[in-house]
Amino acid sequence: MKLREWIPLEELDWELLSRNPNAIHLLEKNLDKVEWNWLSRNPNAIHILEQNLDKLGKVDWWILSCNPNAIHLLEKNLDKVSWWGLSCNPNAIHLLEKNLEKVSWSGLSRNPNAIHLLENNLDKLTTWVWLSENPNAIHILENNLDKITTEECWNALSLNPNAIHLLEKNWDKVFMEYWYGLYENPNAIHLLEKNLDKMTTRCWYELSRNPNAIHLLEKNLDKVSWYQLSRNPNAIHLLEKNLDKMTTRYGRDLSLNPNIFTYDYQAMKDRMFHGGIKEDLMKNRFHPQNIDKFNGWGFDACDEDE
């Protein structure tokens, strides 16, 4: 992938670019600028990390422990992992099941794949905040609404994309000015549309990052936060049309936006025709074992009798 032409590389932040899943090709060419701490979070950077394990410090391993694509690295380095981070990792369930004595139950309560472990150990939860945010824990939350008592819990629940029906039934507990999670919730747009008159400057600030709120933001550009909008993957067209509102500060958060990159079709074409892919594809398709399939592919195949 390549950087969009209207985005100046010199205004981006390499620290945050290191976390961008679509920046891999750019990072590979600029390893001296990479921030290894942030790169450890990047699910698409595993091959880079594998080749540079000597550059990872204690903090980097702690962050890597949360990376769902790093399981094979973590399995080989259990002495370096953070069990809190690993407890949050949705692909680490098999490791956690074998090491329940090392599990962080607060971290595990965030894990969408750990519901079966949580159901049998609810007494180990010291807080329900993280569980309130877990999209797969709705049935547990429905049966334990008496545990959702603090403002922190309700704010976390307001961020949960699968908790909309709970929020609708408990609208009297929703503090629109303070439940900032609600404005980031991609499934809460219909609730917000009905309460636009109650939205404060801070509410619009949080909403500006919501990928499903583009139609609302387009109609209220005077209220959006360009700082937050720069992170919004669905707002690229708005950002391109309003470059005059972008400053260096916004360029920093723009570095996190995966859609500042686009497909490099010329590079893909060059790789196809000059990288051996075309030849390999032709060898496979026109192999004698595929002759009986030619008619279905739009070629005239010779009958065996001819």
Q: Layout of helices and strands, plus pairs?
A:
Elements: E1 2-3, H1 14-17, H2 24-28, H3 36-39, H4 46-50, H5 58-64, H6 71-75, H7 83-88, H8 93-98, H9 105-108, H10 115-119, H11 129-133, H12 138-142, H13 151-159, H14 164-169, H15 181-184, H16 189-193, H17 201-207, H18 214-219, H19 226-229, H20 236-241, H21 248-254, E2 261-262, H22 265-274, H23 277-285
Antiparallel strand pairs: 1-2
Description of the molecule:
There is one protein chain. With 306 residues, this protein is mostly helical. The protein has a domain at 264-306. It has helices at residues 14-17, 24-28, 36-39, 46-50, 58-64, 71-75, 83-88, 93-98, 105-108, 115-119, 129-133, 138-142, 151-159, 164-169, 181-184, 189-193, 201-207, 214-219, 226-229, 236-241, 248-254, 265-274, 277-285, and strands at residues 2-3, 261-262. Strands 1-2 form a two-stranded antiparallel sheet. The N and C termini lie far apart (49 Å). The mean pLDDT is 89.
Protein traits:
globular, mainly alpha, 1% strand, 306 residues, single chain, two-stranded antiparallel sheet
> Could you tell me the radius of gyration in angstroms?
24 Å
Strand content: under 5%
User: Count of DSSP helices?
Assistant: 23
Topology pattern, helix = H, strand = E: EHHHHHHHHHHHHHHHHHHHHHEHH
Biggest sheet: strand arrangement: 1-2
Structural class determined from secondary elements? mainly alpha
Give the tally of β-strands: 2
Sequence stretches where pLDDT stays below 50 over 5 or more residues: none
Q: Profile the largest sheet.
A: 2 strands, antiparallel
How far do the termini sit from each other?
49 Å
